[in-house]
C-alpha cells in the first residue's frame, strides 16, 4: 500500500520536566528509552487490569519533553490518567489541541508527524475511508475501555514485551505467552455496511461493526471467523480481511 498523508485534528498532552521520561516509562506500554529525540511510536495507557484507557502516538520532542497525541475528545482522559500517578514527580502535564499529519500505509500502518506545513484538517470521510483501508482502529469507535490490546492488534507496535513494568502489563504479557483473546478486529467488504450491524455465520451473530464508510468497515469478529471467510450482514455477503 502506497503511503498517503492526511492532516487531522488531535488532542495533545505534553509531558515535560526532569522526570518526564522516567515517569512515562513507568506507566505506558511502549519502551520510551528506545525512542530517540525527533522520533515517535504508538503507545497505550492501560487499566491495571490490562484493558485500554487511551491509545496515542508519542513524539520525543526534546530531551525532557514528550508529545502524546490522541483522538479529539480523549486528551482529558489521557491527562487525568497520567496525573493519577503523578506523585513526587518533577514533570508537568499540559493539554493542547493541534493539527498533525497522519501517514497511512507504506512501511507502517500509521504514523503521526507535526513538523512542516501541516495545513487544515482533511475531509473527514476521505480520512475515515483511508484509515479503515489501512486497518487503523480509532478511539471512540473501534477502541474503548473494554478492549484488550491483542484484540485490535495494538500489541504489534504499541507494546514492548521487554521494557519491564508498566500499568496493565500482567494481563497483556500473560495473553502473549499463554493465552488468547476471543475476538479480533477485522476489515469487512460488502454492500452497505453500517456501524452497529451484527455479522452472522449460519444465522449466529459472530461480531459487530464498529466503523464504516460505504462498502468497507472495521469490526470485531469471534476468533474462529478467519480472514478470507465470508459472513452475512443484513442479508448480504461480506468478505472478512485481516487488518
Rg over C-alpha atoms, rounded to the nearest angstrom: 18 Å
Main beta sheet, described?
Answer: 6 strands, antiparallel
Overall geometry comes to: globular
Number of domains: 2
List keywords for this structure.
five-stranded antiparallel β-sheet, single chain, mainly beta, Elongation Factor Tu (Ef-tu), domain 3, Gyrase A, domain 2, 2 domains, 13 strands
Task: Summarize the structure in words.
The chain starts with a strand and ends with a strand. Helix content is 15%, strand content 37%. The protein is mainly beta and 243 residues long. The strands form three sheets. It has a six-stranded antiparallel sheet. The protein has two domains: 4-178, Probable tRNA modification gtpase trme, domain 1 (Gyrase A, domain 2, 2-Layer Sandwich); 183-242, Elongation Factor Tu (Ef-tu), domain 3 (Beta Barrel). The longest helix is centred in the middle third of the chain and has 11 residues, at 124-134. The mean pLDDT is 95.
Task: Give the SSE map.
Layout: E1 4-16, H1 20-25, E2 40-46, E3 52-62, E4 65-70, H2 75-83, E5 92-104, E6 110-113, H3 124-134, H4 169-178, E7 183-190, E8 200-201, E9 204-205, E10 207-213, E11 216-222, E12 230-233, E13 236-242
Antiparallel strand pairs: 1-4, 1-5, 2-3, 3-4, 5-6, 7-11, 7-13, 8-9, 10-11, 12-13
